[in-house]
Each structure stands twice: as C-alpha cells, then as structure tokens.
Amino acid sequence: MNKENTIKKTFLTGDRPTGKLHLGHYVGSLNTRVEMQNSGLYNPFIMIADMQALTDNAKNPEKIRKNLREVALDYLSVGINPEKSVIFIQSRVPELCEMTMYFSNLVTLSRLQRNPTIKQEIKLRGFEKSIPVGFLTYPISQAADILAFDTDVVPVGEDQLPMVEQTQEIVQSFNATYGNLFKNPVAVVPSAKSRRRLLGLDGKKMSKSANNAIYLSDTTEVLRTKVMSMYTDPNHIHVEDKGQVDGNMVFTYLDVFGSDKAKIKEMKEHYKAGGLGDVTVKKYLLQVLEELLTPIRERRKYYEQHINLVDKILIDGSNKAQAIATNTLKRIRKAIGVEYFDN
Ligand code: TRP
Asked: Within 13 A of 231's CA, how many CA atoms are on the CB side?
C-alpha cells in the first residue's frame, strides 16, 4: 500500500513526569510508539502529563519540574523523533482544561469511584480518607487529552484501559447529547504478558520505591551491578545443579529482550539440565541489554549536550498541539451552543 495515499490515523499517549523511564516503560509502551511512529501510518502525539502528575503530587511540584526534561530526554533517546511526532507538555495546552469542564458534566461521581485503576491508586497513596478532587477526576481530564486530537489509537499499558473506557463513555454521552462530534478511540496494549508487566530485578512488581528497575539512562556500570544482582533460581547453587528457568528473572529478561531465540532456547535447556552457571547467563543478558541501551545512551548524551534544543522541541510541539486543541474546542463549544458570536 502506498503510505502517502493512506489516511493516517492519530495515536496519542503520554506519561506522568514523576520519574525517569525504565525498561518496563520501554517494552510496555515506548518501543511500540517508536514502531508506530516509524511505520509512517500514524500522526503521533506524545504528551508529558504534568497536570495529571500534579493530581497526586500537588505538594511536591519540584518533583514534576525536575522530571519533565528527564522524560523528554527518555523519549528522544529511544527514538521518538520530533520531526515525525508531536511531543508536548499538557499544561501548555490549557484548552484541555475547558474541555475537561464540559466533559465533567457527563460523568457521575459513582462512575469515577468505580474506576479500578483509580481505586487501586487511592489505596496505594493512602487517599481513602480524603481524595483530592483533581485526583478522582483525572480520568475526565485524560479523556480531554485523548479527544482533543481526534485520536484513533491509544497505545498504553493495561492499567490505562479503564481510562480509555471512560473516554469512550464520554464520547457516547457527548455525541448523544450534543450531536456526533467525536470518534471512539481504541486502546492497544502489548500482546505478550511479560511485556505488559515487566517484573523487577528481584522478580517482584517493578517500582521506584523497590529500587528494582533498570533505567534507560543507567550507565554500563550500574547496568552490570543490577544484572549481576538479578533474582535467578535460589536452589541453583553449583554450576552443575539443575536449574529452573520459570520465574528466573535473567531468562525472563532474555525472553523479552533477546533476539537470538535459538541461542536462548539452547541456554535454557543447558541450565535446566545443569552445567550452566548464573554468571554466564547474566553476562549474556548484559550483552543483550548493552546492545539495546548503547544507542539510547548515545542519543541521550547528544540531547543532554543540546538541552536548548530539547526545550525548543517541547515548545514547538506544545504550540502545534495547542493549535489543534483550540480547533477542537471551537467545535465542542459550537456543538454545546456556548459559541455566541461568529468571529
Ligand atoms: N495516565 C497515564 C499514565 O499514568 C498518562 C496519561 C495522561 C495518558 N494522559 C494520557 C496516557 C492520555 C494515554 C493517553 O501513564
């Protein structure tokens, strides 16, 4: 098919700038974005969700400020290309807030309280006794993020499915109330379970507080230390012992990141039969991850040395995003009837 003649679809996704991005983000989402971007079949929008990050960090804005450029650097370093993708900052598109206001009238409190991701996050943050309003309602604001750009596809992690569902309900309600304006966005999540939820170095849920993640910006030395500390088979003590590959993080990571499937299969057989040491397998994983991270580190270094360019990319991207959101907002106002003067 001639790509020039096909109508491109829009995809939109984003991240809260609350920390550096890690390998879990990479396999769960970043690499899909880069592939989709490079396919030439999409108009990509990638948003740094700083306002959403404030919904549970209101008292700690410095954290968001500090991580905003980190996340931008992570994007650029994995190959999100500002010539092909619009990279923008949520708070630089205030039109999203007005949209959120109109959409809030179409969503009930009980519906927000039923959102499984929100429920889980409330527990995690100890918000049970007093939930910030902005936090409870961020799914509505996320619907605005998605709908402002006529998004077709939302590539995200599994935990974001309830947000896309909420968006679809807003589309349905808006269209039924004010006339057909929005199309229904669909979510795409990685098909492999191990990619949807990459476990941490210790085999537990990956999280910043558990200190069990490999960051895209980790140096060779840090990477080596982390790989060497990975959880394997606790009963595999001597090289000649028979080992377990299931639940062994080194093999889990090799399955996700390694491309030489035949070699990995052979190593697994060898490990199971006994005679293959953990250090040998870890060294191989280290080599695989180094191959992945080296070009990423190089691009990061370039942008770190040209931080003004990063700022320009964010400003230009935000301006482009704002122009589109302004146009959508006009259509929304017209549909609702709060556009009083022709100008
Ligand atoms: N909620 C997403 C996260 O925590 C970030 C986000 C904000 C987002 N707006 C979005 C993702 C719109 C997809 C589409 O990672």
From this structure: 15
3-state secondary structure (DSSP) of residue 51: helix
Cβ count near 47 (within 10 Å): 28
Q: Name 31's Cβ contacts closer than 8 Å, sequence gap at least 6.
A: 78
Confidence of residue 196 (pLDDT cuts 50, 70, 90): confident
How many Å apart are CA 186 and CA 167, to the nearest integer? Answer: 9
The structural domains of the chain, ordered by start, are 3-198+307-336 (3.40.50.620), 220-301 (1.10.240.10)
The number of residues making up the chain comes to 343
Asked whether 278 lines ligand 1 (CB < 6 A), one says no
Give the mean pLDDT of 251-265: 96
Confidence of residue 82 (pLDDT cuts 50, 70, 90): very high
Dist. CA 5 → ligand 1 center (Å): 31
pTM: 0.94
For 139-175, write each residue's pLDDT tens digit. 999 999 999 999 999 999 889 999 999 999 999 999 9
From the CB of 12, is ligand 1 less than 6 Å away?
yes
Q: Give the residue whose CA is nearest to atom 8 of ligand 1.
A: 14
Q: How far apart are the first and last CA of the chain?
A: 42
Burial zone of 85 (CB within 10 Å; 0-12 exposed, 13-18 middle, 19+ buried):
buried
- Is the beta carbon of 49 within 6 A of some atom in ligand 1? yes
Position 61 scores a pLDDT of 98
Say how many Å lie between the CA of residue 242 and the centre of ligand 1: 44
Beta bridge partners of 13: 46
Query: From the CA of 14, how far away is ligand 1's center (Å)?
Result: 5
